[in-house]
Design goal:
Elements lengths: L1 H21 L23 E3 L5 E6 L5 E9 L12 H9 L9 H10 L3 E6 L3 E9 L3 H13 L5 H16 L5 H14 L11 H6 L2 H11 L5 E7 L3 H11 L23 E6 L4 E12 L5 H13 L5 H9 L6 E4 L2 E2 L4 E10 L3 H17 L4 H12 L9 H14 L1 H4 L3 H10 L3 H11 L6 E6 L1 H6 L16 E4 L12
Parallel strand pairs: 2-6, 7-12, 7-13, 8-10
Antiparallel strand pairs: 1-2, 3-5, 3-6, 4-5, 8-11, 8-12, 9-11
């Protein structure tokens, strides 16, 4: 026995020594086999229920938890005229306004006892109701979820409290330059007629009644508008049967959510300024955008990564922050809009006197990437930033089903079923010539809109060490935009 043990140890040691001899003497000599990662196939997780709801399901027995999210087609674009804010109020109070069997405060106590998290909301494009709980409490948790989805109470006292909170928020709309920049940017980029530029006002908030919430819920919150993503500790077949029961015999038929309106009009190019007494000016540089299904989508993402989307490796960040020290952060985004083209945007914050100079640098970098081919190193860095991080999209079961639910919402599952399988190949196929082609085609300096929010007098002065003035960047001069009344959203002057 002892001899056998010794012989075994010698053999193991010999193997170890043999392996040690193969270890390179320097880290750069290490040779690793390429990592292979296959993207999950959405069809493997997708189920259509009898009720019309679509489910993405992923059993995961590692933890005794269940993560469930119900995406609801529809959002604030469905707000009736004069009732702006209705979708947001409905979404907020679904999980916070009580259910037939329990008032809101008692429901909160029960959820706390169960160590469960229940939330609900409606944004511009869709709503969401999420439940996270221990798998042992699934029976009661699903009872609560059914009540929240099918028959929320919208308690009057909770509605009144929320309206008071929102009114206080409206009064603070002009306190932060970020809020001002965000709303004026959307107005300039998409026009007054765009649904996203219909703002909640004191009058619209005051006019919303409990009956309005009930009507909105009745119309849009029903299984045919549901996309469910669920992962966790359960049997797949048993869970699908449970979900069938959860959505069966719905108390109201509802309506199919209409497509998101496309009525928008890109604004007039120029330089616009909102006078706000803040230490730093906030700048947005915009151009016409794209949708996610644009044929140039992949090349545009790579191009933008080089330009300003790649953090410290991008040109705008290096010039504005690292080289000139004009801003803590600066960059650009060129997203593919899910339902409508979302504008290209470059942005930063800088001291008032250096706003014009920093803006000119960003414009220079935009013009340069249109004029000069990117380097092979820049291209490789950008492409690797997408390809190497690709598996992060599916790092957990909940991320897998959430990603596929998002695709279902925007129509990608039907129109591009191989999107994830092809993603890395399409990014990898982008070359230097393609980057320059899409830069020339899609970066339209003749349509640039520049929005600045900050101290008018100081910004217009410019910096004594730099000759650039904001007016130099404006062919039609600088247009001053008035501040808006926070309660009515009408110009103050």
């Amino acid at each position: 026995m002892k001899q056998n043990l010794v012989a075994g140890l010698v053999a193991v040691l010999g193997v170890a020594l043999g392996q040690a001899e193969k270890i390179p003497d320097r880290p750069e000599k290490l040779d690793f086999p390429p990592l292979v990662y296959e993207a999950p196939n959405p069809a493997d997780y997708r189920v259509e229920l009898k009720s019309g709801a679509v489910v993405y399901i992923y059993p995961d027995r590692e933890r005794p938890l269940i993560d469930l999210s119900v995406t609801v087609r529809g959002g604030s674009y469905l707000d009736p005229e004069g009732r702006e804010g209705l979708a947001g109020l409905t979404g907020y109070l679904m999980a916070r306004g009580g259910i037939p069997s329990k008032p809101a405060d008692e429901l909160d106590e029960e959820l706390e006892f169960l160590a469960a998290r229940l939330s609900s909301s409606f944004g511009g494009l869709n709503g969401s109701v999420s439940l996270n709980l221990l798998s042992k409490d699934a029976d009661r948790g699903f009872e609560i979820l059914r009540a929240v989805l099918a028959a929320p109470n919208f308690q009057q006292d909770k509605l009144a409290l929320r309206k008071t909170q929102l009114l206080q928020g409206l009064k603070q709309r002009n306190d932060d330059s970020r809020n001002i920049e965000s709303r004026e940017r959307k107005l300039l980029a998409y026009g007054d007629g765009f649904w996203g530029n219909r703002h909640t006002t004191a009058a619209s908030l005051e006019g919303i009644r409990r009956e309005d919430l009930l009507a909105f819920h009745h119309d849009w919150v029903h299984p045919r508008n549901f996309i469910v993503s669920i992962s966790g500790d359960f049997d797949r077949a048993a869970m699908l049967e449970r979900l069938d029961g959860l959505f069966a015999a719905w108390p109201h038929p509802g309506k199919k959510a209409p497509p998101v309106p496309q009525d928008r009009e890109y604004g007039r190019p120029g330089v616009y300024l909102v006078d706000k007494d803040v230490n730093q000016g906030r700048v947005s540089i915009m151009m016409p955008g794209i949708r996610w299904d644009d044929p140039d989508y992949y090349a545009i993402q790579v191009m933008n990564d080089v330009l300003g989307g790649g953090g410290f490796t991008s040109r705008i960040t290096n010039r504005v922050r690292s080289d000139e020290g004009l801003a803590y952060s600066a960059g650009s985004s060129f997203p593919g809009g899910s339902h409508y083209p979302v504008v290209f945007r470059a942005g930063f914050q800088s001291k008032s006197r250096t706003v014009a100079y920093a803006t000119s640098i960003v414009l220079e970098e935009i013009e340069r990437i249109m004029r000069e081919p990117v380097s092979a190193e820049e291209l490789l860095t950008a492409k690797r930033s997408f390809i190497d991080t690709f598996p992060n999209n599916f790092a957990s079961p909940s991320q897998v089903v959430s990603a596929f639910a998002g695709d279902e919402l925007i129509g990608r599952y039907t129109s591009q079923p191989n999107y994830w399988a092809d993603y890395r190949d399409k990014i990898g196929a982008v070359d230097i010539a393609t980057v320059q082609r899409v830069a020339k085609r899609r970066l339209k300096l003749d349509q640039v809109i520049i929005l600045v929010v900050g101290q008018k007098e100081e910004i217009l002065k410019g910096h004594p060490d730099h000759s650039v003035k904001l007016g130099d960047l404006a062919k039609r001069g600088v247009t001053e935009l008035p501040m808006r009344d926070p309660l009515t959203m009408k110009p103050l002057k």
